[in-house]
Specification:
With 508 residues, the chain is α/β, with parallel strands linked by helices. It is 35% helix and 17% strand. The chain has helices spanning 15-26, 48-58, 76-79, 86-94, 111-114, 128-136, 157-164, 203-210, 251-267, 298-315, 330-341, 349-353, 371-380, 405-413, 442-452, 461-465, 479-502; strands at 4-7, 31-33, 40-44, 67-69, 80-81, 99-105, 119-123, 141-142, 170-173, 184-187, 194-197, 214-215, 243-248, 272-276, 288-291, 319-323, 346-348, 360-365, 389-394, 435-439, 458-460.
Length: 508
């Protein structure tokens, strides 16, 4: 089958294209189309054979109900019975919009559409292309997300083409969607009404309209032996090809934990991805990092989530680590989709963070132009089991001068360079926390402790490594003394690497 792809402008809808798509649906065919949530795979909701085609095209389990899309509130009366009076108030407030209501079905709706249930899921989309298509198709269009079952839902026509090209008759390309997450599902056959799938319409928004709204306790991976109320929620959804894991903690802990997890994965030769935010993107140093949006407006995160998951497929990553998001507002929906995509794989950020004794190592010398930057560059090249921010600082730095030329010469002879380094003075802010300060000699250590106090994180390099060899100070001396300094530092840095690595192996 050749899939026809037609661009359509929601601001200037081509009625000829809409009528063509409508005729395909009336004849039992399948048409993918944009809604404000995600792209839907449209079929005639009152045609049992069309439902069968939908399941076949998606590879979707047949007990996973399809949502019936309508374009007029009065259309409810044909497909639902015993409609609660609260439905009218919800429709007035939230339709058209991203809210799906579960109602008792009428005999007009085939069991193929409802997944064998006596209830029907109904919503009225706000997207103008979707509503025109529903009208042209006869008023009742079933439309699950237009993707292969289990894959991230499509938020652009290209995503639909990737999954369903050759399996359906037509794709209406209306550009990127507005919301990016599927609609909220609210079960109106129970009292109080129950949210079966979180979305952009939240409980806080609905409760002033209908009173108390409950939430299915199986959502968001909560510990329970109960099956989810919505049959579709028992299946893994939205998943990228790579293993996805959610790292949970406060934002600082999550960033530190993900940095360490990525560093470890890269050491093992894995290609790793990171789902970051505008606020944290710049802090990551390893892997393929994707900025999903800003925490100040989580609607941006919702809009980008599925597209980012698909981008990681293109990047062919082996593992993906994601930050977590607040369980309030649309954050509930974001976390629900992430949980499903990750198969509920979660990692405690605190458990990863506490494994690392130090996160930053600063080599302190007098002017930060020779021994300190040499040691820092050597350590950066070692095979460290954990990631460290490695810097050098000077105790007396009057201006940002480059490294000593002789020091650079001996480093180049060892296939290393400090060409980009400029001297930086040590500040009091760098004396606290999980920082290890290593001085070049005892006198420098004494001066630091006298000036800033001893928090148990200041050592000479030879003291910390348990060695007896002093580090020669080559300043003003012949080149061969700089070479001796390099050799001594090299031995001490190897010892330092062994000690740092021992922290991750249960050592001292």
């Amino acid at each position: 089958m050749e899939t026809i792809i037609k661009k359509i402008d929601k601001m200037n809808i081509d009625q000829k294209t809409i009528q063509e798509a409508g005729e395909i649906l009336k004849k039992g065919g399948l048409v993918a189309f944009p809604t404000e949530t995600v792209y839907g795979l449209g079929a005639n909701a009152l045609d049992e054979e069309a439902a069968r085609k939908t399941y076949a095209a998606k590879g979707r389990p047949s007990d996973n109900p399809l949502i019936v899309h309508i374009c007029e509130v009065d259309a409810l009366n044909r497909i639902a019975v015993n409609i609660p009076e609260e439905v009218g108030r919800l429709a007035e407030k939230f339709w058209p919009g991203p809210l799906t209501l579960i109602l008792e079905k009428s005999d007009e709706v085939p069991y193929g559409t409802t997944g064998g249930l006596d209830t029907v899921a109904v919503r009225m989309p706000s997207d103008s292309i979707a509503r025109e298509l529903i009208r042209a198709a006869g008023g009742y269009v079933s439309a699950p997300s237009a993707n292969t079952s289990g894959r991230p839902s499509p938020t652009a026509a290209e995503h639909v083409r990737e999954d369903l090209d050759g399996k359906i008759e037509m794709i209406l390309d209306g550009g990127s969607v507005d919301i990016g997450l599927e609609s909220t599902i609210l079960d109106m056959t129970v009292t109080p009404p129950m949210i079966l799938r979180p979305g952009a319409i939240t409980a806080d928004m609905m409760e002033p309209v209908v009173g108390h709204v409950s939430i299915d306790e199986t959502l968001l991976g909560r510990e329970t032996d109960k099956a989810p109320k919505a049959p579709g929620m028992k299946y893994r959804h939205y998943a990228p090809k790579a293993k996805l894991m959610i790292v949970e903690g406060n934002v600082k802990e999550e960033v530190l934990a993900i940095r360490q997890l990525c560093y470890a994965a890269v050491r093992e030769g894995k290609r790793v991805g990171v789902i970051a935010t505008n606020e944290t993107y710049s802090y990551y140093t390893n892997g393929v990092v994707k900025n999903i949006g800003t925490r100040e407006n989580e609607k941006t995160i919702a809009r980008n989530l599925y597209a980012v998951l698909r981008e990681f497929d293109d990047e062919e990553v082996d593992e993906i680590y994601s930050e977590s998001f607040a369980l309030q507002g649309i954050g509930n929906a974001i976390m629900n989709r992430l949980e499903k995509a990750a198969g509920h794989l979660r990692i405690s950020a605190a458990s990863v963070v506490k494994q690392q004794k130090y996160r930053r190592i600063i080599f302190v010398s007098m002017t930060d132009t020779c021994r300190g930057p040499m040691a820092a560059e050597m350590l950066r090249r070692e095979d460290l089991h954990q990631e460290y921010v490695i810097d050098s600082r000077g105790m007396v730095v009057l201006f940002p001068e480059p490294v000593n030329q002789k020091a650079e010469a001996v480093m180049k002879s060892a296939q290393m360079t400090m060409a980009s380094h400029t001297a930086v003075a040590l500040s009091e802010a760098e004396m606290e926390g999980d920082i290890l300060l290593l001085t070049m000699d005892e006198e420098q250590k004494i001066k630091l402790t006298e000036q800033y106090g001893d928090n148990g994180n200041i050592y000479t390099l030879k003291e910390f490594t348990g060695e007896e060899t002093d580090i020669p100070n080559p300043y003003g001396k012949p080149l061969n003394v700089y070479g001796e300094c390099l050799e001594t530092l090299s031995k001490l840095i190897h010892k330092l690497t062994e000690k740092l690595n021992s922290f991750t192996e249960g050592g001292a």
